[in-house]
Design goal:
The chain is an alpha+beta fold. It is 33% helix and 22% strand. It has 10 helices and 12 strands. An 8-stranded mixed sheet has the order 4-3-2-6-5-1-11-12. A 4-stranded antiparallel sheet has the order 7-8-9-10. The protein binds glycine. Glycine binds next to strand 8.
């Protein structure tokens, strides 16, 4: 495929090189060992847990699910699971999605008092006729399927919320790296099977009912064994506008490297979302191609991503558009 692209470009048919041609597969050799990439510094822990889960299960979906579950249970992260900041009514609501590279996917939105939305998303994917459940229905489904009821507001986040509410003009804080925002985790196994998981408590003090990009397949997460996978973090309202993760995967299908694809998706957001110039808007993407190459890109400085190759974990600073 690469050779074909290079040839078409060399004879001046570059645009043809970026078109998917029926019958020509984007197949590539998968990496020799399992590989993961995930968002933010909490990704290091998630990656290690994913690796262990892969060794235990030989299933790349179970690996990414277990990797993000550990972050959902961490009480000190303010934007995922337990300890996540609540909406403006004081309730912590969670969004998550999970996807295999064969197209199977599940998602849950505005789920409350359930610790592991990612596992509810997987349950929906595997055992329900649907892809996505939200709100009360999602919670009922989770309870009926044995997920325990759990208060997700901690003493610290209750105090933060009370302080926020007591402000003269309580407003939405910027989504930024201080509150970490979303764990997205992508994996590939040596057979070329890919999977991804994405989970968040969303924008702190959001209007009740708000969904971000994370539970929307194609925005917060997209996985296709034929090409690769992508996940997003940052201001969901901007990522949804460009169907961010699907866009990244399709840009890779067209021949862009994972990093170039993430950069182009970030650039498209800045074209559509003029408010990004205020400096308050962060959105970032991670991507993994089906040969294991990874890349990332952000709108602004501060986004980090964690790469796991075998036993080795690296935390990388992503390049960004605004300098
Ligand atoms: N990216 C997470 C959110 O906007 O909810």
């Amino acid at each position: 495929m690469e050779t074909r692209r290079r040839f078409l470009k060399s004879v001046g048919l570059g645009s043809l090189a970026s078109m998917a041609i029926p019958g020509i597969s984007n197949s590539a050799s998968p990496p020799s060992q399992v590989k993961f990439v995930s968002t933010w510094s909490h990704g290091r822990v998630a990656n290690k847990v994913a690796l262990k889960a892969y060794k235990d299960s030989s299933d790349i979906l179970s690996a990414v699910e277990n990797g993000v579950r550990v972050i959902e249970s961490e009480a000190d992260g303010r934007s995922v699971g337990l300890g996540g900041l609540p909406d403006r009514s004081g309730r912590v609501t969670l969004d998550a999605s999970i996807m295999r590279g064969n197209g199977a996917c599940g998602a849950v939105g505005a789920l409350y008092n359930i610790e592991h939305p990612i596992s509810v998303a997987r349950k929906i994917m595997e055992d329900s006729p649907h892809v996505m459940l939200v709100g009360d229905g999602a919670r009922q489904y989770a309870l009926q399927n044995g997920f325990p009821d759990k208060e997700l507001l901690t003493d610290e986040t209750r105090r933060d919320y009370e302080n926020w509410k007591a402000k003269e003009k309580p407003d939405l804080p910027p989504v930024n790296h201080e509150n970490h925002d979303t764990i997205g985790l992508l994996g590939i196994d040596p057979q070329g099977k890919m999977a991804g998981a994405c989970t968040t408590s969303g924008w702190a003090y959001k209007i009740p009912g708000r969904l971000g990009d994370s539970p929307i397949i194609g925005s917060g997460l997209f996985v296709d064994d034929e090409v690769g996978a992508a996940s997003a973090t940052g201001l969901g309202e901007t990522i949804i506008q460009v169907s961010g993760s699907h866009l990244v995967v399709e840009l890779m299908r067209g021949g862009k490297s994972p990093k170039e694809a993430c950069r182009e998706a970030a650039r498209r957001i800045t074209k559509k979302f003029s408010k990004w110039k205020s400096g308050d808007v962060q959105a970032a993407f991670i991507a993994m191609r089906n040969d294991g190459e990874v890349g990332a890109f952000a709108i602004k400085k501060g986004f980090q991503y964690a790469v796991q190759e075998g036993e080795k974990t690296d935390l990388m600073d992503a390049d960004y558009l605004t300098r």
